[in-house]
What does this fold into?
Amino acid sequence: MDYEYEQLAQREVVEYWRAILATLKQRNLLKPRPQQGGYVVPHALAILDKSRAYYILDMLRLGGIAREQWLDRNLWQQWRAALSGRKICVADGYGLVICVARTPGLPTATRLPAMIPLTSECMPDGLYTVTLGQSKQGDVVLDLAGAHRAILTGGTSGAGKTNFMQSIILQLCAKHSSDEFQVAIVDTKQVDFAGAFDRLPNLFGEIAHTVENSARLIEAVEQERQRRQAVMAAAGVADWRLLTESFALLLLVVDEAADFARNPAMDTLVEVARKGRAFGVSIVLGTQLPSARVINPQVRANLPTAIAFQCRTHLESQAILGTGGAEALDRPGLALAFLDGKWQTVQTLRVEPESSGLAESVSAPPTPALEPLYAAMVRYALDELGGAFIIGRLYEQFGAQISKRQLTRLGQRWEMRGWLTTPAHATDARKVSDELAALANGGLPPGQGSQNGDRVIGVTGGDRCSEPVIGSGDRASGPVTGAMTGTFPVSAYSQEVAR
It folds into this structure.
């Protein structure tokens, strides 16, 4: 190595070492020396290769800094900031070695956008995928049928938890028909999923607004999971997407889990989270009262994807994430998430009711009539079966146009909707309600809309655009390397840097 390159290499390792010691001093890890002045500093031998600098620490002269303190990842992050984004870590083997990348990290935004509106450009292309928001590394995408099918989320009132749930629902409804995706919504606050959400054609059942109705809807989702399990067992299929006539992804969204903390419905929610994956049943469980009473270890263990918005205390953050951090979030929509094995800070997408129009665009028109086939079946039940909705007889008459399985599912949905009566005994038939009879004749009671995947035609209030139309919005959107190598004692610079 010639003299000039040796001087440059020595200057480089000293520059890194100064930043390392300065950070230790900022964190009050260096102990002062009252008699001599200055600080007690660690000693190391530096080795420089083509891509990294290594600082082999003298284990007998660590400056009084404990081994576990050197392994603190928060310290590594602070070092990285002081070293222009260079990756840095401490290897722990027979001794401690600080490894510093010689190439600075790429420049990243120091702060995420304060608000990112939900637009059509935000939505990913993949089946059952949604965009959570944006981190400093780019878009963060969730797979609701795969790795992120069981989500726990929470935060203080107004922090963004409900908005996140709305964003998931609207993105999935905009991308999938009711044959591909259905959603069951529990909204005991009765205000967060009103209006256009009531008319989503992808609804599995009527939105539940009371604890009693919510418990029934949650139980209906579990019964559907059990039904799918029986169908798949009979077909010898282990994955719901491999059936000849595949199921729709069913998503259960619970806005406030605290309402069920001491309710048997919580056990059902855990069961759905634990067993739903193979049968196409996913869950998003939220709360603005995160505590050990609401989110017990069993709940968190079965909801591996954790997304926390701003929390009041470290304990609330710990209830959701298993660790602190969410109490430091400083604005609505900003979330701390543990996704795919790593922590990410994400600015989530915001549903803007006054500008996006997404909820209206994916909702069914407010005054529809039943599809002709469904209306014909209802009229046949009224005229020929005395108002009884008998699956076998209806299949005999309409089997050329609808499968028995589809007819059975239709009867279940209509019963949940209240369009068919619930039989008193298992052998009794469901009966057509007055509301369903009116629908079959082209009329609809005021204020009611299409739900549960029922196809609609004949819009009497003016045609609506069936294509999701969303307002557009903007989204926020020189390495130095050397070939010098060598070995250098950096301990001689310790006192100079630490003063």
Remarks:
- Residues 84 and 104 are 6 Å apart (CA to CA).
- The radius of gyration is 30 Å.
- The longest strand covers residues 342-350.
- The first helix runs from residue 3 to 26.
